[in-house]
Description:
Layout: H1 9-23, E1 30-37, E2 40-47, E3 54-56, H2 65-71, E4 80-84
Parallel strand pairs: 3-4
Antiparallel strand pairs: 1-2, 2-4
Helix pairs in contact: 1-2
Amino acid sequence: MDNKIFQNDHAKEKLEEWYQLFLNKIDTPTESIQVETSFGTSHVLKAGDDSKPVLLCLHSMLTSSAHLVSELNPLLDHYQIFAPDLPGQFVRGPEVRFSYKDNSFSD
Length: 107
């Protein structure tokens, strides 16, 4: 697996700016959680009230947890959302590119 997903540091910084832009659109306090995985440290965005039922949400390709949760603001009235940043998909996930020739995506 090639661990390089950004062309350069400037590109990574621009994506971090986009992440912050969407994070600022979330109507409730958020928490960043770091989770160790077999592919490296992964980021999970937690949003919403701890007393509400948990809803695990996965973002689509080339977006992030902040993009997803900002679009789901109305659900935060009813749920606590956990949104992991998927490997190789955005600035906060593990910086790995998975092979299409093995089970990397399912693993």
